[in-house]
Specification:
The complex is a heterotrimer of chains A (145), B (193) and C (559). By secondary structure, chain A is mainly α. Chain A has one domain: NADH:ubiquinone/plastoquinone oxidoreductase, chain 3 (Methane Monooxygenase Hydroxylase, Chain G, domain 1). In chain A, α4 packs antiparallel against α5. Chain A is flat, with a radius of gyration of 27 Å. About 13% of the residues of chain A have low confidence. Chain B folds into 2 domains: 116 residues, NADH-ubiquinone/plastoquinone oxidoreductase chain 6, subunit NuoJ (Four Helix Bundle (Hemerythrin (Met), subunit A), Up-down Bundle); 33 residues. In chain B, α1 runs antiparallel to α2. The relative contact order of chain B is 0.07. By secondary structure, chain C is mainly alpha-helical. Chain C has one domain. Helices cover 69% and strands 1% of the residues of chain C. Chain C is globular. Chain C starts with a helix and ends in a 10-residue tail after the last helix. Chains in contact: A-B, A-C, B-C.
Amino acid sequence: MTVLLALLLQTPPRAGGPPSPGPVATPPIYGYIPIVIFFLIAVLLPVVLLGVSRLVQRQVFEREKLMPYECGVDPIGDARDRFSVRFYIVAMLFLVFDVETIFLFPWAVIYDRLAVFGLVEMLLFIGILVVGYYYAWQKGALEWA
Amino acid sequence: MQLHGWEAALFYVLAIMTLFMAVFVVTARVAVHSALFLISTLVNVALLFILLRAEFVAGVQILVYVGGVMVLFLFVIMLVQTRAEEESRVRLYTGQTWPAVIIALLLAGSFYFAMSPAQAAFRPPDATTAIAETAERASAGAGLNISKDTQEVGEQLYRQAALPFEIASLLLLVAMVGAVLLARGTKQEKYYE
Amino acid sequence: MQTDFQTIATQAMQFIMPEGILTLFACAALVLDVMLPRDRKRFVAWVSLLGVGLAFASLWILYTSIVSKGTPRTAFFDMIVLDSYAVVFKSIFLIGAALSILLSIKYLEIEGEQRGEYYGLILFSVIGMMFMASSVDLLALFISLELMAVSVYILVGYFRRDKKSNEASMKYFLLGAFSSGVLLYGISMVYGLTGSTNLAKIAAALPIVASANFNPFGAAAPPDMRYLLLMSMILMAAGMFFKVAAVPFHMWAPDAYEGAPTSITAFMSVGVKAASFAMFGRLFLYGLPDLRGSLAGDPASGIPSLPGWALLLGIVSAITIVWGNLGALTQNNTKRLLAYSSISHAGYVLLGLIAGNQTGYTGFVIYLFIYTIMNLGVFGCIIALRRRGIVGDRMEDLNGLMKKAPGLTVMMTIFLLSLGGIPPTAGFIGKFYLFAGLIETGNPWLVRLAILAVLMSVVSLYYYIRFIRAMYIEGETEPQPVTLAPSLRVALVAAAILVIYIGVFPQRLIDLTQKAATSPGLKTYSYQQGATKPAEPATPPPARGMPGERDRQTATPPR
């Protein structure tokens, strides 16, 4: 019961009294209840919305209605056409800088403790990546014309 | 560390889900379905990380893999014409299926064989220290609103592993150069010339 | 923290100066490439060459001022160590890179692909190799391995319009990524079992974890961790076998070597192989020395003893030598043939690790040094055959070369004889040390392995002589003349002189490599008379006499 209460209140139980001997269950992870609730709502909401609209809609299917909507114009060709390879470069560059951003998180958290060392370290890291960015830019990898 | 109670149940559910989703990734005929199953696998793994109290790694898993790598995968799927393969009855399984299954089973068997005598070394956690640790983590998080886990990762990464961290930046640079070098369109080449 | 920063800064200035210089020049190569006009791109090659030269000079200064005096030092929180082993390997990579750059200049011009990224990527992969040779931490080792591998994947597919090059790159990349995964699996298990990624700490923890009676928590039956340890060792070995192209994991090599630009084939056949062997040595000789012989069991309680990695490596190297040499016999494409030949050479180099004594380790290092020079020489000669309209990678392209280019033919002959291990050349010295190391052990199975290796290197002479026959005896089939570009000529002549010089006056190189082979932390292992034969699974295991069998030097690199 205390565990359930603690779960809802998101705090660990007070370590009052002597701990019982023998293997005790590992204390549960606290603080994830909002996420679980959020997740449940996220699943329920579309299910409810789609279900309700399915129940109340009039089912009329005709050719025009089933056509993909393309700004009111008749669609030209297949929607699943091959993309240009340029998208790949953009995605790749995005990924590289995504990883770089992730590296900034733990650095920022302990920035006060790392001091100058951390600053120089990160400057070097970003400096090397900036060379790559300059290279990609000059090579026209970001050019769309 | 051995799991007990609802954590154990959660672990087994997540582990089995991960395995099934991984199998679906390789057996799905439509490439986009494969990608979606892969997302599911990766999210499951992230949840397993949370179960291990590695919140930062779980976050990285979601941000980099589900956010970044999957976008890349979807782009690659859109680059190639997969429709022909989906619609025609291209054989998904070749003669190598059975050898592959047998080898995988042998590998699993040998892992079980290697793992089972070592079981005794995995002792249940000490209850008092575990509670204290959790309380400490919670209080550290409450005051600063920062996971202690992230700080630990930072300490390790930016102090102990400072050199590999810089080598990693070179690795990222090389990946960038490779993408630009190998995947430039003809138009961009003209622009550059 | 200020002191921390100062320590690191000093260490960076001192210990990783060569790598730092190379990083600067590699970035400069990328920037120069976008700034220079199309017809000036070869300038980047000379800049990169200057970078390699400066790195070599600073490595030399480092060697004379720090390494040659006193004990090796660790730096960056024990991530890297600076010892003779690292320095010798780094010089191998730098020599390999310099020769490869010289070989490439004219070749890329003919192919119309002269661009700066090429040289930048070569430098990046050399940085990865150099860190692989000096890292003593699994994390740093793995990241540097990836840096090298990713650069080389890109270089293999450098000819974007060539379908073969694309295919080679794809195959190499997919299999390489898979093998990295296998290696990482092994690494993660070792970390889990020993609680550290530092090789010295792993080596210190191994005797405890690997003993059959290891029982930390007082369980009823002691948990037998040896199976898990062996499992992780096998996974790590499998990953490394792939990188050096040893036989069950060699399938990528012929295709990748054939499809890649010839200059890159030359570079990867020596650089990647030497670097992977450097890492192999670090992992197995520094990190897992206690898994070499048999892992003692406990006969009293019926716990069997288990074979170690010497057995695994012995079997793999025997298969590799046989398979590589037999595979080479039937090839008609010279690049493919040399791919098989380089597979068999990987088998020879493994012999040095198996022997486990001073001679074996010297052979391990010296053979890689010599192999780098002679193999680059052979590929340089094949690059010289690339002319307008002629690819030059078929055996027939060598026909009648003696009449067209006598100098080139003589140099090619020297390199081929050296690869075959004929006495006046350097290749003989390398093979001599490898085989002598095995015979020195006195173990009958290892002696048999040495005899097999000698027999197979006789077989290898057959296909090396096929080249010589084509060059000297066959009539000309192609009227087009062969001309040597100045840079190529410099590289080839330098390599040929080195091969002959080392073959005739090997002492200086032997001294240098012996220092590398006696680096502290590199544990030697003597096979006791009548003790277990690591190359044979059926013999009864020794009792718990392990410490007596091993002539252990200082276990951990001192701070």
